[in-house]
Structures are given as C-alpha cells and as structure tokens.
Specification:
This protein has one domain. The chain has 2 helices and 3 strands. The chain has helices spanning 35-39, 41-53; strands at 7-10, 15-18, 28-32. It has a 3-stranded antiparallel β-sheet. The termini are far apart.
Length: 60
C-alpha cells in the first residue's frame, strides 16, 4: 500500500483526509486502507473501548 492509498480521520474537523493533505498526525487517527474505514474511525474506537471494558482479563 502506498502513502497515497492511506486515509486518516481528523479529530479536529471530523473529516477523512489523505496522507499528505490534512492536519498534523497528532490530531488524526489512522492510517486506514480505505476512505470508508477512516470514516468509521470513531465507531471503531467506541467498539474497541466497549470490548476492552467487557474483557474479563482487564476487569479482574
């Protein structure tokens, strides 16, 4: 995968950005392989947080 094929989700603008055109990496989530995956970034974060909250290994 080349850099031009990666996408990031900007936490400041709540928008999908390309690798070279967008906010600083400290303000982004990614990279993601598709624009659609990047658009779901916050959903994925929520899903992972819920999984970890319910993981018995972490809640002993």
């Amino acid at each position: 995968m080349s850099d031009d094929e990666q996408f990031w989700f900007c936490l400041n603008h709540h928008a999908v950005e390309g690798q070279h055109h967008g906010c600083k990496n400290k303000d982004r989530l990614g990279p993601y392989p598709t624009r659609e995956d990047a658009a779901r970034a916050l959903e994925k974060v929520q899903e992972r947080n819920e999984e970890w909250d319910n993981d018995p290994k972490w809640n002993q």
